[in-house]
Amino acid sequence: MDASMVCARAAFLASIAAALAGCSGAPSETQVHDAMVKRAQQAGAGMVAPDFKEQIAKSKIENCSKAEAGSYLCELSMPAGNRSTFRFVKADGGWAVADH
Question: For residue 14, is it within any domain?
Fold first, then answer.
């Protein structure tokens, strides 16, 4: 098998893996951050903490598990060292933070 076939096959397999990862169900870290920023903006966080977007971007998903009705409970490690659990649901245009 020549090099171009190997590259083409590798690219095909990589695209399939990426597509399947998108179907895994739980929101990605980027999707979680986007949902958290949207929720914080709705709550007026910019008036209280001007750097809220930066703080959210620094948070890390520690665990995400499937919950009822297609939602996911995700535990986030926040920059200040505390952990919080949030429920995420699929919404129009992506994921959203749900009320518990």
Answer: no
